[in-house]
Design brief:
Layout lengths: L6 H12 L9 E9 L2 E4 L2 H11 L4 E10 L2 E9 L7 E10 L2 E8 L1
Parallel strand pairs: 1-6
Antiparallel strand pairs: 1-2, 3-4, 4-5, 5-6
Length: 108
């Protein structure tokens, strides 16, 4: 097992922390699916989701652990920012396809 996240996942967390979303969609497959706070976002709508999700809350994500089996990853992180209950532990369930994020489910 490697001790580093795959480039697409590492870049996802880096973009979230720096709020540099200029190439954000390139981290995802064209038909990618994100589920966050019980809302689904697909393909190009993912760019709108990340802008809205981070605009006010200004989250900072610190990855504390991850595991994987094949192209499926579970990342545990502490997320802090401008929201009630901060900081919170979150779990990111990601599937990669062709080294890009195909699915991302974010759960408490």
């Amino acid at each position: 097992m490697t001790n580093e996240l795959p480039p697409a996942l590492a870049a996802f967390f880096h973009a979230t922390n720096t709020r540099d979303f200029s190439d954000f969609l390139s981290l995802f497959t064209p038909d990618a699916h994100v589920n966050d706070e019980a809302s689904d976002h697909y393909g190009p709508d993912i760019a709108t989701w990340i802008d809205r999700a981070t605009d006010y809350t200004k989250p900072t994500v610190t990855v504390t652990d991850f595991s994987h089996e094949g192209d499926q990853f579970v990342i545990t992180a502490t997320v802090s920012g401008n929201f009630p209950g901060s900081p919170l532990p979150l779990h990111y369930h990601a599937t990669l396809k062709d080294n890009k994020i195909a699915t991302l489910l974010i759960k408490a």
